[in-house]
Amino acid sequence: MDQKSQAKVMDEGFMIIRCDDQPSIRIKYKGPGSHEWRTLSNHDTKAARERERLRLTEDPMIIED
């Protein structure tokens, strides 16, 4: 999704999440009021991050990039 598309969905109230491994295992997000990537949560393992990602995506207002 390009930045223009991301801005459109964030302006409608959605939060966008993305998984990242560097510099730590984490989930990043962009959302209403914050059009910059920020860390939502840090995890010790990729499995823990995956469980959190699945839990987050159950919310209809959270989408993955």
Question: How are the strands of the biggest sheet laid out side by side?
Answer: 3-2-1-4
User: What is the total number of structural domains?
Assistant: 1
Main sheet specs: 4 strands, mixed
Percent of residues in β-strands: 35-45%
Taking all residues together, what is the mean pLDDT?
A: 93
Task: Describe the fold and architecture.
- The protein has two helices and four strands.
- The protein is of the alpha+beta class.
- It has one domain.
- It has a four-stranded mixed sheet with strand order 3-2-1-4.
- A hairpin with a 2-residue loop joins strand 2 and strand 3.
- The model has no long low-confidence stretch (mean pLDDT 93).
